[in-house]
Design goal:
The protein is an alpha/beta fold and 309 residues long. Helices cover 39% and strands 15% of the residues. It folds into two domains: 12-135 and 294-305, Rossmann fold (3-Layer(aba) Sandwich), CATH 3.40.50; 137-290, Aspartate/ornithine carbamoyltransferase (Rossmann fold, 3-Layer(aba) Sandwich). Helix 4 links the parallel strand 3 (104-109) and strand 4 (126-131). It is globular.
Length: 309
């Protein structure tokens, strides 16, 4: 097992394939241990700080649940209005302060690179819970864990990523993990929201098979895994552009049953209208199982970076 003690978790590109497998195996171990006991004692007397400068449901509650399941305690905030940031305190000073209270820090912030700033000044390990349109490595890891759980393996599959690929931090982090495996990527997005060229160029240079299209139905015919994302209203400056794009891709039950009934469907959530609710009962609709897998991955990461496993 690789030694993660004291390491920061900042972006998908930081991991080797062996390190990814170490995290996957640790998450599976957490899943099995929770089947025997609702609360472990690995993190007893340890404190996790959750600093959410940006709205979150799943990521914040998942990290907090993970720490409680590990037997630890949680402090933090979910709104900057109640913190000294509202008084003008710098991010670095906020992190230096929180560092005095906690053993590990999770941060979500609207600015790209904010987690790196936090890691540069903190002594405690820092985990990036999402930095603007940048990276969301723990979501990418739980996505990979879900694919492995649903499909049994990760090599020799085709993954379709659909929606907002320009600002989508989950897909930006995800492709940095997928590149270590023998998989093909099909990127489906409107031209305005296509995957940044520097990312696709890097993938192709590394030997990853990448196809780009605006046609979801043609991509779905080839998909083993379909990863849907919402058009992010908060990332678009022009409200009219959001209105034009928000319904560009909508996955329906009829589409899945007629085109690719065996496909595994993922979504980082929240969902708006890009997957109709009648898809939820299909066997391959894994997005709520995906949510639960986030607990196991985050338990594993917390325990790994604190040296408890």
């Amino acid at each position: 097992m690789h030694d993660f003690k004291g390491k920061d978790i900042l972006d998908g590109a930081q991991f080797t394939r062996n390190e990814i497998e170490t995290i996957m195996d640790a998450a599976e171990d957490m899943r099995l241990r929770l089947e025997e006991s609702r609360v472990l004692d690995l993190m007893k007397e340890y404190i996790l700080a959750t600093l959410f400068f940006e709205p979150s449901t799943r990521t914040r509650l998942s990290f907090e649940t993970a720490m409680h399941r590990l037997g630890g305690e949680v402090v933090g905030f979910a709104s900057t209005g109640t913190t000294s940031s509202a008084k003008g305190e710098s991010l670095a000073d906020t992190i230096r302060t929180i560092d005095q209270y906690a053993d590990v820090i999770v941060i979500r912030h609207p600015e790209i690179g904010s987690a790196k700033v936090a890691a540069e000044v903190a002594i405690s390990p820092v985990i990036n819970g999402g930095d603007g349109a940048g990276q969301h490595p723990t979501q990418a890891l739980l996505d990979l864990f879900t694919i492995r759980s649903e499909r049994g393996h990760f090599d020799d599959i085709t993954i379709v990523l659909c929606g907002d690929l320009k600002y989508g931090r989950t897909v930006h982090a995800g492709v940095e993990l997928y590149k270590h495996y023998d998989c093909s990527l099909i990127l489906v997005a409107p031209d305005q929201l296509s995957m940044p060229h520097e990312i696709t160029a890097r993938l192709r240079e590394g030997g990853v098979k990448v196809e780009e299209t605006t046609d979801l139905e043609s991509a779905l015919k080839k998909a083993d895994v379909l990863y849907m994302t919402r058009i992010q209203k908060e990332r678009l400056e022009d409200p009219a552009e959001y209105e034009r794009l928000k319904s560009r891709y909508i996955l329906t039950r009829e589409m899945v049953e007629q085109i690719r009934p065996e496909v595994t469907i993922l979504h980082p959530l929240p969902r708006v209208n890009e997957i109709t609710t009648d898809v939820d009962s299909l066997p391959g609709a894994a997005y709520f199982r995906q949510v639960k897998n986030g607990i196991y991955i985050r338990m594993a990461l917390i325990a790994l970076v604190t040296g408890r496993i």
